[in-house]
Amino acid sequence: MSSTYGEHLKLSIFGQSHAPAIGMTLDGVPAGQAIDLDELQRFLDRRAPGRAEYATPRKEADRPEFLSGLVGNVTCGAPLAAIIRNTNTRSGDYSNLAVVPRPGHADYTAAVKYGGAQDAAGGGHFSGRLTAPLCIAGGIAKQILSRRGIECGAHILSVGAARDIPFDPVNVSRDDFALAAAHELCVLDEGAMARMKEEILSARAAEDSVGGSVECAVTGLPAGLGDPMFDGVEN
Predict the structure, then answer these.
(1) At what angle are helices 131-146 and 37-45 packed, to 10 degrees?
(2) For position 51, what pLDDT does the model report?
(3) Is the dihedral of CA 196, 197, 202, 207 positive or negative?
(4) What is the pLDDT of residue 105?
């Protein structure tokens, strides 16, 4: 299974949901880039578990430990390597997954792909827990891009039947991104947030789950970015 992505920036994700740690390496970041570690932590806190009744109850601090690539808070040209230690694991809760895979998870396909040798605890390497080191890389990239006038933002467009107002495709701005990020759920309309919470809690009460969608936008991209067919923005 490949857990590496990218050409100019090469990102590798490693670890399992209940392993001692999860982490990432990011190769290709230029030397001399200052990284605001407090801002990075605030970014990671937005996805950290155990912060609300409608999120997973697992509680993790999600504090990255940088092993290489930073001198002080400035990149030195070496690959950035960081880990997040897993502290709240209850692997015994997953002991039945070998015979009762969870709907909507990769438990069954992972067992088929790896012949039962996969780490099933918490979903192993297939777990959403692995989005935490992904956010380390994303948070660093967002800071570097912002200095070049490129802003990335997203909001929850829908949860079940509850929908937020969409971004204005012509006039979306940094203010829209800040408005969404300021809400407990990342939305533009507080009324939509209340309806989304109802959808989530109703599904939880029924011991079920509910799907949703996220809308992402990027502003400030230079014209001519990318290449035809396989390396364009939409591709």
Answers:
(1) 130
(2) 62
(3) positive
(4) 83
Q: What's the whole-number mean pLDDT along residues 141-146?
A: 96
Phi, psi of 19 (to 5 degrees): -70, 170
Q: Which residues pair with 212 in a beta bridge?
A: 159
Closest to 37 in 3D by CA, of 70, 67, 10, 79: 70
Residue 54 has pLDDT above 90, yes or no: no
pLDDT digits (tens, 9 = 90+) for 192-228: 999 999 999 999 999 888 999 999 999 999 988 888 8
The secondary structure element, H or E, covering residue 235 is: none
Amino acid (one-letter) located at 157 = L
Surface-to-core class of residue 103, CB atoms within 10 Å of its CB (0-12 exposed, 13-18 middle, 19+ buried): exposed
Alpha helices in 86-146 (DSSP H): 107-114, 131-146
Per the CB < 8 A criterion, the answer to whether 58 and 128 are in contact is no
- Find, among 29, 208, 56, the residue nearest to 131 by Cα: 56
Two tokens, residue 24:
């990432």
Q: Map tokens 């933002």 to a residue.
A: 153
**Do the beta carbons of residue 151 and residue 34 sit within 8 Å?**
no
pLDDT in tens, 95-111: 676 678 888 788 888 88
**Residues in the chain, total:** 235
